[in-house]
Design goal:
about 80 residues
């Protein structure tokens, strides 16, 4: 009986940790074209953690257009020239 209670408590605690940690795993702001980071000066250097980034139809279309292989994550920038 104690083992079942311990397992139930651990399940609840684990569930709460996942819910609380979810905002920390949010996608980058420039994950989609709508949130593309504006770049006004060149040369441009940026570091982006794509761990939680995703891909969508825009990424697939860009890859197809330039002949690049599929990607599993992306961050988008838009030049302001």
């Amino acid at each position: 009986m104690r083992l079942w209670r311990l397992m139930a408590v651990l399940a609840v605690v684990t569930s709460l940790l996942v819910v609380v940690a979810s905002p920390a795993l949010a996608q980058p702001a420039n994950d989609t074209i709508e949130g593309a980071e504006l770049v006004g000066e060149f040369p441009f250097l940026d570091e982006l953690d794509t761990t939680t980034a995703t891909t969508d139809a825009t990424d697939a279309a860009l890859n197809e257009e330039c002949g690049a292989p599929a990607t599993d994550a992306s961050g988008l920038q838009e030049p302001q020239i």
